[in-house]
Design the sequence.
């Protein structure tokens, strides 16, 4: 749900001339002009030094300019209307009332986008939904106004008529062939990965014991301190400059060029200092919308997502359902492992293919396993899109394989450390994809952490009583 | 009462993109005063990567970190970069920056060699000087060489370079191939207190031993690990986007989407595992993403160690741990006191 806009009683710019003025300049910060360069930055050789960051001082003094701090003369503020319904056909969008509001300079919808699709691999994501809504955070229209408040009020006046459709919300349901396609006629399974090595069934047959477990993880948000933000400025030469919180400007420029249908040479993307990315800013969001609003109005246009939009209209981490089956020898050597991963891919592909690949490749853990069968699927649902997030599927599979490892260790009466050391990769080990690994230190990390922690063998699963 | 438990988790994580080409390019200009400017298309997203890149360029040129000014993230001015993603900046962009600096240095050596009556191959750069290998007293300040290069030799010392990790496509039938250039490894061990009456979990301490190849800047590695652990604690215990029956988010705000604050942070002991990767810049790999990968597993293994319940669905909220404890008690009505090996794994699992 979008934030409730702050309602201005009479949004008449003539009555409230203050809102047309740029914000007051920031109060003067006094700071010593003679800068003492910290020692770590002055020393050679440079590698290995605890050098402080060049931007640390600016951050500390509040002088770093984030997009929200940037202002250009005559700049407009934009807001995007969110669908608020997970799956629907758009019957009509009426923007007349919003357009008539004093202070509103331009309104656009998906029909104004020259090429209304993008995505890092599959181009399945509309810039603004024009015919179908695939998740509640889809944008359906955008307004540029002289103030953020007027823009927020204007999007409330846009009337969208929907024909609601039944959303697909459960990834395991989505996996079934009989489930209606989220992006019909495309199948719900939009990515598949398989890694095979040896003969896993034979290994299970020869195992002393076989263990099974199912693990699930949830959808989480990146929650960067700085939400997504962008400013677009279309100039008289037909060139557009975009300031953005984007973490990948090279790809971003290509995507903006494609959606706007203009040559890349007419686009300049400047990524400002970003207040946290964690994977949520690795593809374009509203850049084409701001560029078009700027083109339409001849003025710079700024958009800063609300915290709510950051949750509902940007990417999130893939929830996973993970089935593990592992056969071990009497001594505790892993003989075979079979894994099935189902990734909830949300409404759009985004970075799902990368997440699927990394999750599947890493799913067996850092262990020597001769017989492996790891299969992964990613499916569409009508939920917030899932995409890149710190770890690309690795935190999810690590939660599964390491919980599973402890279960096995406990059942065999082995110290979890000993069980891991017995099976861990070493220099020259062959990975699940057949890659010979170099600079491998998983055993060293286990031993160092155990020593530092004061690890002392197998627990009894009943903890140590501590003072309540 | 509160019960203390400990649990470990180890992991492996690749540096860079899966198979697909993910190059970075870089340009290094050595200025007349012996400082340098690096042009890179990567973006500073708060992790300190521009400082790491400055250190790599400084190392190659034998100058200090503060002598390198970094210009980044402008498609009009900076060379292409696949971006601040996939823990690739230190390894991929770092290699590109090192190669660019090496090329600028080659020009400096060409200019300096006749001045010192040696061949360029006999020269080295360190501590702001270009000197003859084995004869450090025969040297010139890098600024003098750079200025000479510009005003006398007419050879501005500017280098450009690129790097793309060597990969091999995966076979679609078997998944066999070389998807990544290199990997990092890590172990985290968590100590938790679990209240066996309320299910509340407090993470007391986490020891994190991380491999990142050479630590170009140990302080920034520590920062990444501490940040990763905080994200891992949230993933393990609190954070979850909830949906209503119609697919709308119920808690898209920081009032109802609970994440760790500084008060929820455990004591984090960062341990950097000595390593050197010959394919990385000065032996470095990366550390950004892996720092959160093992945290949730280590915490859940510690919960099991403390109270004998296996949480199989994240997050391990107090409610979930409480229900698991209840289920465990119901299954063992007559056992009072310690049960050997806790719930025995899946028998007390909660979905």
Sequence:
């Amino acid at each position: 749900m979008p934030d409730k806009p702050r309602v201005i009683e009479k949004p008449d710019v003539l009555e409230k001339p203050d809102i047309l003025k740029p914000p007051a300049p920031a109060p003067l910060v006094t700071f010593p002009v003679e800068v003492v360069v910290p020692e770590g930055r002055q020393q050679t050789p440079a590698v290995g030094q605890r050098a402080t960051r060049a931007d640390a001082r600016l951050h500390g003094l509040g002088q770093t300019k984030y997009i929200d701090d940037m202002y250009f003369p005559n700049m407009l503020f934009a807001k995007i209307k969110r669908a608020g319904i997970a799956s629907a056909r758009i019957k009509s969008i009426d923007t007349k009332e919003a357009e008539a509001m004093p202070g509103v300079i331009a309104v656009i919808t998906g029909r104004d986008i020259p090429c209304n699709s993008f995505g890092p691999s599959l181009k399945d994501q509309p810039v603004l939904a024009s015919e179908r809504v695939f998740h509640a955070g889809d944008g359906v229209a955008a307004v540029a106004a002289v103030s953020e408040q007027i823009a927020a009020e204007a999007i409330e006046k846009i009337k969208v008529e929907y024909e609601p459709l039944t959303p697909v919300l459960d990834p395991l349901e989505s996996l079934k062939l009989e489930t209606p396609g989220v992006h019909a006629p495309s199948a719900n399974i939009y990515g598949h990965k398989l890694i095979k090595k040896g003969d896993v069934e034979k290994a299970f047959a020869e195992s002393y014991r076989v263990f099974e477990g199912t693990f699930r993880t949830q959808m989480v948000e990146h929650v960067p301190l700085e939400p997504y933000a962008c400013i677009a400025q279309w100039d008289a030469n037909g060139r557009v400059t975009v300031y953005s919180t984007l973490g990948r400007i090279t790809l971003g420029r290509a995507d903006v060029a494609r959606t706007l249908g203009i040559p890349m040479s007419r686009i300049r993307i400047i990524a400002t200092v970003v207040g946290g990315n964690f994977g949520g800013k690795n593809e374009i969001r509203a850049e084409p919308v701001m560029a078009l609003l700027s083109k339409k109005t001849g003025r710079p246009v700024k958009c800063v997502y609300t915290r709510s939009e950051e949750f509902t209209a940007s990417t999130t981490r893939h929830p996973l359902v993970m089935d593990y089956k592992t056969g071990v020898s009497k001594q505790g050597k892993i003989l075979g492992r079979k894994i099935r991963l189902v990734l909830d891919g949300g409404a759009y592909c985004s970075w799902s293919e990368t997440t699927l690949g990394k999750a599947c490749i890493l799913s067996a853990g850092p262990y020597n396993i001769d017989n492996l069968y790891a299969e992964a699927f990613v499916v569409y649902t009508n939920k917030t899109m899932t995409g890149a997030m710190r770890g690309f599927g690795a935190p999810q599979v690590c939660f599964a394989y390491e919980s599973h490892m402890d279960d096995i260790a406990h059942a065999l009466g082995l110290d979890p450390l000993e069980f891991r050391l017995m099976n861990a990769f070493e220099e020259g080990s062959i990975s699940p994809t057949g890659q010979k690994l170099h600079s491998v230190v998983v055993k060293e990390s286990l031993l160092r952490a155990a020593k530092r922690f004061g690890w002392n063998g197998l627990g009894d699963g009943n903890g140590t009583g501590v003072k309540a | 009462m509160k019960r203390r438990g400990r649990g470990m988790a180890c992991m492996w994580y690749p540096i860079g993109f899966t198979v697909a080409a993910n190059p970075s390019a870089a340009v290094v200009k050595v200025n007349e005063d012996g400082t340098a400017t690096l042009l890179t298309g990567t973006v500073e997203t708060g992790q300190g990567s521009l400082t790491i890149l400055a250190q790599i360029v400084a190392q190659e040129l034998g100058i200090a970190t503060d002598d390198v000014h970094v210009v980044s993230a402008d498609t009009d001015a900076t060379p292409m970069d696949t971006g601040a993603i996939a823990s690739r900046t230190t390894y991929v962009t770092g290699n590109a920056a090192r190669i660019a600096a090496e090329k600028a240095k080659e020009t400096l050596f060409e200019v300096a060699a006749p001045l010192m009556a040696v061949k360029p191959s006999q020269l080295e750069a360190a501590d702001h000087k270009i000197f003859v290998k084995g004869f450090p007293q025969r040297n010139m300040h890098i600024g003098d060489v750079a200025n000479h290069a510009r005003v006398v030799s007419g050879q501005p010392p500017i280098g450009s370079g690129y790097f793309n990790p060597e990969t091999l496509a995966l076979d679609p039938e078997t998944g066999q191939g070389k998807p990544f250039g290199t990997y990092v490894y890590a172990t985290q061990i968590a100590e938790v207190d679990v209240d066996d009456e309320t299910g509340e979990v407090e993470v007391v301490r986490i020891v994190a031993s991380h491999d990142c190849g050479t630590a170009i800047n140990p302080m920034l590695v520590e920062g990444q690990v501490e940040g990763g652990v905080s994200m891992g604690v949230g993933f393990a215990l609190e954070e979850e986007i909830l949906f209503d029956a119609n697919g709308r988010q119920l808690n898209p705000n920081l009032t109802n989407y609970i994440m760790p604050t500084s008060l929820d942070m455990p004591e984090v002991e960062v341990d950097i595992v000595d390593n050197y990767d010959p394919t990385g810049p000065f032996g470095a790999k990366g550390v950004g993403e892996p720092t959160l990968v093992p945290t949730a597993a280590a915490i859940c293994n510690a919960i099991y160690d403390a109270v004998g319940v296996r949480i199989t669905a994240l997050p391990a909220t107090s409610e979930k741990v409480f229900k698991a404890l209840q289920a465990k008690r119901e299954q063992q009505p007559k056992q009072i006191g310690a049960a050997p090996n806790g719930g025995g794994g899946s028998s007390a699992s909660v979905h």
Summary: The radius of gyration of chain A is 27 Å. The first helix of chain A runs from residue 39 to 42.
